[in-house]
Amino acid sequence: xxxxxxxxxxxxxxxxxxxxxxxxxxxxxxxxxxxxxxxxxxxxxxxxxxxxxxxxxxxxxxxxxxxxxxxxxxxxxxxxxxxxxxxxxxxxxxxxxxxxxxxxxxxxxxxxxxxxxxxxxxxxxxxx
Length: 128
Hints:
The chain is mainly alpha-helical. It has one domain (2-126). The chain is built from seven helices and no strands. The longest helix has 16 residues, at 97-112.
């Protein structure tokens, strides 16, 4: 049952495409799915789906979701879309230090793992 459940959670993340925003309820089930998105190599699709959310409330939640993804994977396909997400977090983080901290955490995690495509964004916003 373990593999089947993990696969189910991975596939559940695909439902993100149907959402208009990420609220309290949807954040909870996305957080359940996030650590499993790489099981069936679906992280690229999931990241693409996350870029469609550009409202402040969803972006704030995306930071936490992405950190959850990084607990089990280091997605690097679709780097431009990951940069877009982190850039949005940094912009919103100019008004909210917790969100900036999420963006920093994402950049630092990639850096520690030897993946440096977020380095410029990190330095751009590190002094703000």
